[in-house]
Batch of 2 targets.
Target 1
Amino acid sequence: MCCLVAGVLLAGCATMTSSTGRRQNVGAVSQQELDQLGAQAFAEAKQKQAISRDPGQNAYVRCVVNALVAQLPASTRGIAWETAVFEDRDANAFALPGGKVGVNTGMFPVARTQDQLAAVIAHEIGHVVEHHFEERLTNQVRTSQALQLLGALAGDYGSLVTQGGSIAASAGFLLPNSRAQESEADVVGQRLMAQAGFDPRQAVDLWQNMLAAGGSRPPQWLSTHPDPSARIRELQSRADTLVPTWQAARAAGRTPRCR
């Protein structure tokens, strides 16, 4: 892993344009290295967290992930996607490079329908397909923060890792995303769920449920995201434009039946 980190530090940087038109700093790490870091972070999460053995919960998450992945570009669709359900009451979910998706059991009471769960997972997959992890690592290199990869943990993401955790976590894989990345993942995720045959309007319902469930303390998945009220308005506005996409997907036979 030290060689991998050294490769991150020494690699060159470049720019690219995301699917939403946003310019990104990338190039500090190869896709192979990203996938290796994602696999390590996922393995560590499974070691640290209790995993649900409930066959219904696991099949449910796999079904939603498979329906969404089927609409990704061939290069991403061809990855052997892996899912895990964690026994944790926090309403949280994540996706990592290399095709890793984790969902906490605490998400199920909040994401009450398959469409609402798809909104959560599609958002997280959006971070992967829009190269947000690569962007974050590249920005760390450019600001010299990547030197910390060989030191203490820079932070954590929810309950997946603890202080003093791994190099994979230090690399930023489990840190909160920037607000620009979060907004972009909203756009990409809502579009992806509609293409897969999930009702994009239920992304709005999900966020309303998240707010209601939070009370005085926002759910973990909500706490690192932009202003909820503004976000709901944007999701509602996009949902109206994505209804034809959803209807076309259903007409084409993309009718997920995960629950």
Target 2
Amino acid sequence: MDQDRVLEAFRLEAGQLTKAVAGLPEAEWDRPTRCEPWSVRELLGHVRIVIAWLPQMLDNPAPDSAEIAAAGYYRPDDRFSPQTNATRIDLARNHAAECANGAALADDFAATWQRVDRLCRDQPENRVVRTRHGDAMLLSEFLITRVVEVAVHGLDVAEALGYEPWLTAEAGTVVRELLLGSGSGQLAAVRELGWDETTFLRKATGRAALDATETAQVERLGVQWLTLG
């Protein structure tokens, strides 16, 4: 997927999340989310952390070639083990606690993604990075996974705050293409279901259940999507 296109989706989606939490009353930051045990405050801390890995990745020597694409990044190994998940939870909680209040956390999130955006814009199209899990990936492919983080957890923040979801068309397209693969048949099948981007993302990530009719349609159409984790 074109790096500029993915970066634009990242920029737009992160910008919408920034707008959603700007000026949020302090008490709202402690609302629970579906991503237990995180509150809104801690969930935004998590999204900030997973974006903040990028500057160090760009500072490190580039691997000779990419070995993993975005879909392979989600393979079920130690990165989704109970121990790694516990560390992930603690990192988010600790970062949120380090910020004086929700406004400071929101400002930190905005500054972090904006810095990452600037750094990535200066990278060549074929730039290869190594993730903290050891994967050698094209920067464009790793950025797809960051779009996933911002888009999917943006849905979670919206739900926790009682907001209408703000999924941008650009981010929705990037995530849909990742979840369905590159085949045009899968995309045509999903369009036949009549779901918009937000509904598709909710259904495909288990944030909204399939009813009996939808389950039958999905099976009939042969729709299969990538499981994230």
